[in-house]
């Protein structure tokens, strides 16, 4: 299990509406702020890949797990 506290601050920056989840739109906004435009299709693909409970959003736990997986790819 990923260490959620390690990723909490970043998660909270991305979760702009403060609802405790990262939506597709919040993910797209993050990528745009980082200088990389992503299509809606690609954003949906990322959310689906990270969304373990299939609620259509990324929770802190799912975000931490995603970050752990992608850190090993770098």
From TrEMBL:
Residues covered by the EF-hand domain: 2-37, 38-73
Keyword Chaperone: no
Annotated Pfam families: EF-hand_7
SMART domains, per the entry: EFh
GO molecular function list: calcium ion binding
Entry keywords, A to Z: Metal-binding, Repeat
InterPro entries: EF-hand-dom_pair, EF_Hand_1_Ca_BS, EF_hand_dom, EF_hand_pair_protein_CML-like
Protein name: EF hand domain-containing protein
Organism: Actinomadura hallensis
